[in-house]
Design a protein that fits this description.
This protein is α+β, with helices and mostly antiparallel strands. The chain is built from six helices and eight strands, in the order ααββββαβαββαβα. The radius of gyration is 18 Å and the shape is elongated. 25% of the residues lie in helices and 20% in strands.
Length: 209
């Protein structure tokens, strides 16, 4: 549904899928390198320099070794993977999401071991397939398959707490009508309990930001 909305802008030649973190995307927005971005979580610069519109909530899944006993469960609790290191990213990549996850991790009955997340996601998944760790990944990224690797949904509480809220963002002082209208078209009513992009119908004008 999101791709259909993006296609309706008739701007495919001007769209990019840069390999950038959310923090780097916001920097590109500030530097006028990009006019509209899709970013995970809302940054502290909200209202001042960036105008945000909530788009959807992306569920996380666990990428894990298929030989691990927890893989037999339909939904996996993070405590069940305490014997494996979590492939984890640096806070600088996305401070808001990192802090949200760390707050949840602190409530667990076990302490999760951490390992540095490789920059190459395929290398990370190959590492996991050999039984060397596990990772939390957006559902839409769980498309690579190989022997020894599987994906499982998180247990209910973790699924609700750790899902990624994805926002469209533009500069707060943006005057280009096409960019402002694109933000409005992407904006969805905030649905706190939604765990996926379940419906996008006619564009809805958001509440003032």
């Amino acid at each position: 549904p999101l791709n259909r909305l993006l296609a309706a802008f008739h701007a495919s030649d001007e769209m990019e899928m840069p390999s950038l973190t959310s923090a780097q995307l916001l920097q590109s927005l500030a530097k006028n390198s990009l006019d509209l971005i899709l970013t995970g979580e809302k940054g502290p610069e909200a209202e001042d320099t960036v105008r945000y519109a909530w788009v959807y909530r992306e569920p996380l899944r666990i990428a894990m070794p298929s030989a691990h006993p927890a893989s037999l469960s339909e939904n996996v609790a993070l405590e069940a993977l305490a014997d494996l290191p979590l492939c984890w990213f640096p806070r600088s990549a996305n401070p808001q999401f990192y802090d949200k996850c760390e707050r949840y991790f602190s409530t667990l009955s076990v302490t999760l071991k951490r390992g540095r997340e490789p920059e190459d996601s395929l290398l990370m998944l190959a590492h996991i397939a050999r039984g060397k760790g596990f990772a939390l990944m957006p559902q839409s990224k769980c498309t690579f398959h190989q022997a020894g690797l599987c994906y499982r949904p998180l247990a209910d509480d973790a699924a609700k707490q750790l899902a990624i809220d994805v926002y469209a963002a533009i500069r707060a002082d943006e005057t280009n009508a096409a960019v402002v209208n694109a933000l409005i078209a992407l904006s969805q009513p905030d649905e706190p309990e939604a765990l996926s992009l379940i419906h996008i119908s006619e564009p809805t004008r958001p509440e003032p930001i």
